Amino acid sequence: MTRTKKKVLSGISEAQYQEELAKYAKSEAEIRKINADIDLQTQKIREKYADKLTALQESKDNGFDVVMQYAEENPDLFVKKRSIDTAFGVLGYRLGTPKLSPRKGFKWAGVLDLVKENFPKFVKVKEDLNKEAILADKELTENDLKRMAVEIVQEDSFYIDLKTEQID
């Protein structure tokens, strides 16, 4: 991807500004129209194939269930290897990523209490700056902010809010 520098404009006349704003509005209307056409055509294509896709997905899901049931009923197929090659592809078992689960009769809150008591090194304590509280505190002085090494900044951003009913 090549980066291009945006040229800095200056000395724009009112006539140029009016002309460019009109082009901007017309371009926006064209973009909306094209996107609406794309959405409409996409929806028609989805509707055309919806029934077939549903039937194929159901067939695929059923096939998966049957093959998995066969594999579960024939564990001897997977004694030497955890997968087997077939004419249509490879099927087998993958070992999932290890994860913790509370033992029967326990909830995570109870587990946390036990771990705090017996194994505190496994409990996280996260410190984070409460930026929202700093912004909301109206009693902070400029000196307080300096001592924190922060400043409150607000930036203006230019916008164009088109009156779309007039453009369309």
Can you characterise this structure?
With 168 residues, this protein is mainly α. The protein has a domain at 14-95. It contains five helices and two strands, in the order H-E-E-H-H-H-H. The chain has helices at 14-73, 108-118, 131-136, 142-148, 164-167, and strands at residues 83-85, 90-92. The chain has a two-stranded antiparallel ribbon with strand order 1-2. A hairpin with a 4-residue loop joins strand 1 and strand 2.
The shape is flat
How many extended strands?
Answer: 2
**What is the arithmetic mean of pLDDT?**
92
Order of helices and strands: HEEHHHH
Give unreliable regions as ranges.
Answer: none
Q: Assign a percent range to the helix content.
A: 40-55%
Taking the sheet with the most strands, its summary is: 2 strands, antiparallel
Q: Calculate the terminal CA-CA distance, rounded to whole Å.
A: 34 Å
Beta fraction of the residues? under 5%
Strand order of the largest sheet: 1-2
Summary?
The protein is mainly α. It contains 5 helices and 2 strands.
Which secondary structure elements does this structure contain, and how are they paired or packed?
Layout: H1 14-73, E1 83-85, E2 90-92, H2 108-118, H3 131-136, H4 142-148, H5 164-167
Antiparallel strand pairs: 1-2
Task: List the keywords.
168 residues, two-stranded antiparallel sheet, 4% strand, single chain, 5 helices, flat, mainly alpha, 52% helix
